[in-house]
Amino acid sequence: MLNVIINQRDRFRARLRDTEEEVRRLKEKIGVLTVELEKTKADNVKLYGKIRYVQDYNSEKVVSRGSKKYAEDIESGFTSDVESKYKKIYEDDINPFAAFSKKERDQRYKELGFRDRITLSSGRFLLGNKYARTFAFFYTIGLHVLVFSCLYRMSALSYLSNGPDETLTGDKILNLPHAL
Q: Which of 31, 47, 141, 160 has its CA 20 to 30 A from that of 176?
């Protein structure tokens, strides 16, 4: 009985080693394929750039990148999904100013203090969200109405306590009535 269990254990160990080796090989293969996929994607973006150059050269007109419609496929007359996918990647990659601007913005954000980051984040939230802007607007209006009504009430109470003909003088101390 012990020999059967030992043989079974050895078979399971051998099978486990084989499975672990296969998993290792598959992970290596996935790594190689991922690198190859990234290279292929970069090659496709470069190829799309060359296609754009040839199309612009053949059309013999100056075209700005921002105002140009999608490049049309010569055979079919419409833009393919693959071409539009690589067009976006190409346009994002070719714009060095946007990348530089984003890098500078990130650098400045990292240099901010804690309180400044909170202020910037809350400002972005308030300005970037329609409902937050609406709430802030009505909240501000409500606060102004509250302050103006308190000032009006205080001036009315002051007027009633002094009377219409009395003037305030420096030697007279007035106790204003408090609201009940």
A: 141
